[in-house]
Amino acid sequence: MQQWARIAILGAMFVVAYLLILAWQKDYGHNETQQQPQKAAVVSHEVSADLPNGQTATAASDVPQANSTAQQTTESTAAASQQLISVQTDLYHLWISPKGGDIVRVELLNHDKNKDSDEPFVMLESDAKRTYVAQSGLIGLNGPDSSRNGRPIYEIEKSAYTLADAKAAKDKDGKSVKVLSVPMVFKTADGVEIIKTFTFTQGEYPVVVNHKVVNRSGQNWQGQMFGQLKRDNSEDPGKSDQGIFTLGTFLGGAWGTPEEHYNKLKFANFNDEKLNVEAKGGWVAMVQHYFVSAWIPGELKLTQANGQAYSAKLESRKSSDDMNILSFTSPTINVPAGTVAEVDATFYSGPKIQSELKDLAVGLNQTVDYGWLWPIAKLLFLGLQFFHNLVGNWGWSIILLTVLVKLILWPLSSKSYRSMAKMRVIAPEMQRMKEEFGEDRMRFSQEMMALYKREQVNPLSGCLPLLLQMPIFLALYWVLMESVELRHAPWMLWIQDLSAMDPWFILPLLMGATMFIQQMLNPQPADPMQAKVFRIMPIMFTVFMLFFPAGLVLYWIVNNTITITQQWFINKSVEKARSSKEVA
Question: Which Gene Ontology CC terms are recorded (predicted)?
Fold first, then answer.
């Protein structure tokens, strides 16, 4: 029974290691990473619209079309589309196109392109190599984005904004913050004025995009707000190359509603599993390693009425040029002559910080995808956060978390190690019985079970420490892979990125050494073949760990070191008790 238990545990460990390697490769080919274009002062690549279909009026409707764009010359349109609006806050450097008011480039100033670069991480961009933009506007019967003459060209006050242009305001907690407004205006020939305003708040990633319709015409105005994310099929720029492995998590679309909190949608399935859901409080997003972009429908405010959340239609589709598009569309907005209406939505493009995402929409924080072990992973992350607040270093936080986990599991593991220590003590007696009974396996098994009962030894208890550690090991792997807080997080000396492998392979070698020492403290298998396999295990696991995140290997080293100390003291205690019993 003991032999079969050891074989089962050994097989489970190999399967777990193999599955972890497959997890790196799942849905991601090891393609050559595309070279990122140099930082652009101006993004000149124009993106086609591919807008959603709005609700159209009946044939009897006498509502006029907004067609003032026909008065603009080709030259003025081209010039305006090239004059991007630059917006820089403490978190963003962002560019907005006056043509349609699309966000065509986003740089995250607090996140480096990679650990060896001082360049900011580029979230959205539009150039000859990559298309990933956030579009919004007004469609429908009178929406200017539905005009046959193309997207509207907004008038702008100036082409560059910084926090120096911001105004003081109070946030939801009553603290003073700077709020930056970037207005754009489009006027129709019949007197309808549309003011599109982007509102940035100091220290926050969410951007509120508001459309204000001022109807000075003599007719009713109808339209719908839309927001969409448009992305090509290029690989994830946030994943890291680890030699023969490519580390990465899910790349694709995601959406949620208050009823269905989190749903993933692969790019390849945008047509086959087409999203078409209407919900109040929903969201759509593009998810990648460590980062996410999302549209969250906001509120509709009519004249002399408080803003109320509206029910939006969430959709996915492929464009004619194979672009992946996720969008929302508001209900039809009626603005009678002489009245004003506002409709808005929130746009988020930045790191997957759970505490911020959960306040934006139900389920949006689940884009930090810890997999099926998420309850354990969530607890581990909270523990890491707690220790990081104390020591300010994620490496030491992992060490302190390991100590805490070992203390919690101490009673169970101590009982197991004590049983293993007794197995070690009675090993000579078992060898004597094996020699005495020879080939009589039935008699040997009977005598061995009697010995276990007499010495109060459970041969299966040695499996318990591994069974307890494997879920924690797997959960911590996903915490390191999914938590942007640990991206490029240094520990000390040569370990400057806990989420990447050890560049000098020192930690995996130390892990192998501690695993070997730990094995020497355990009872050795009686079967020669098993003994050889167990001697090879430290070598095999050292090879596996060469490509694992340094933070995960650090956890395993500390765990093994504590286990060695604990097991050594228990072995000495059991041996001493055995000696005293024999003397008596």
Answer: plasma membrane
